[in-house]
Amino acid sequence: xxxxxxxxxxxxxxxxxxxxxxxxxxxxxxxxxxxxxxxxxxxxxxxxxxxxxxxxxxxxxxxxxxxxxxxxxxxxxx
Length: 78
What we know:
Layout: H1 13-37, H2 46-52, H3 58-70
């Protein structure tokens, strides 16, 4: 019996020290999705991101997105 149906989450220690654990986790999830769809640039909806990280509320996810966008890591359109 498989108790872990999803892929495990990974956090880069160097990204975590720079952007915090939540920021590093979110960057990893976005990169994982980018590799899955095999696109250099991608557009993700809030609902798609929430489906990938159900442990965050809408407002928590937006807070993390805004923090990373403020670092100019990606563009954010609301």
